[in-house]
Amino acid sequence: MNDASTILGEMNERSREVFRRVVEGYLSDGSPVGSRTLTRDFSEKVSAATIRNVMQDLEYLGLLDSPHVSAGRIPTQLGLRMFVDGLLEIGDPDDADRGRIDASTTSNSEDVSGLLDRVGSALSGVTQGASLVLTPKHEAPIKHIEFVSLSPERALVVLVFADGQVENRLFTPPPGQTPSSMREAANFLNALIEGKTLSELHATIQTEIGRRRQEIDSLARDLVESGLAVWEGEGDQIERLIVRGRSNLLSEDGEAEDLERIRHLFDDLERKRDIAEFLELAEDGDGVRIFIGSENKLFSLSGSSLVVSPYMNADRKIIGAVGVIGPTRLNYGRIVPIVNYTAQLVGKLISDRS
Q1: Which residues pair with 292 in a beta bridge?
Q2: What does DSSP assign to residue 33?
Q3: Which one is the CATH code of 95-137+240-353: 2.40.240.50, 1.10.357.10, 3.30.450.40, 3.10.20.30?
Q4: pTM
Q5: Is 128 exposed, middle or buried (0-12, 13-18, 19+ CB in 10 A)?
Q6: How far apart are CA 21 and CA 97, in angstroms?
Q7: Residue 1: pLDDT band by 50, 70, 90 thresholds?
């Protein structure tokens, strides 16, 4: 079979219009589009039989499909790809959508993770899909570290970076911790961290613990090791993926099979450790990319689409990505400019704070 661009180039104006109207009708309400519907508002006077013949030709080319006998047509994955690449008209996000995204960034907090969390929530709310935000790995030098006891089973490790950002994570401390062992562990680390990034600190800690084993109490040593394991496991080697708006894809009137597919998708997302592949998806181009259904193995089982765009720091280096997951019948013309605008806004905010 010819690729989508070749097929589009060989289609006449009537076939293009039929194809475009079927896809737009399907994207609008998710229902198959019949020949009688198209006949009513077609640009030229044609019969329903003529429209049916054109639709049959498009079905033979693999662009349309009939979900039921004698029903209307819906676009196939190939058809959606051809529409997105060759016929989709994309403008700017409207003022209301832009305003809601902007409002999520107005906090004076220097916490980038909190900022991206709010952006993700706003993006899922605006698009009525699930949003993905891949956060950048933080490589600024560390200024201060603190351990805070919340209960015998819960503690907080707090990192203050030289650029003013603050990050904190919960973890389970070793048994028997006391206020003095908490202070000793923090003092031990703060004596080592000046000017070091998190990755540089990791390289130093194990050597220093072994060399100064007699100088640091065993309780404090255990606290240092368990507290830093939190950062080693999530904060340094891989980026963090923020997913918001799961409920948007789990509507009560959805088919049971569709709901199971969406649950499978989110289970996969939550289990996935190598989430940096979202960055790799976006790095092939500096603009928005659209993945439809099985074009991306992560979404092949759920039949979902992903609209994703990278964002860059002040040095024009890609450091993260912003995206929206939804059904294949996403309103691409509206979602693409929103994702593009959000990615540019996030890149500018992070550059301004660096």
Answers
A1: 305
A2: B
A3: 3.30.450.40
A4: 0.70
A5: middle
A6: 26
A7: very low
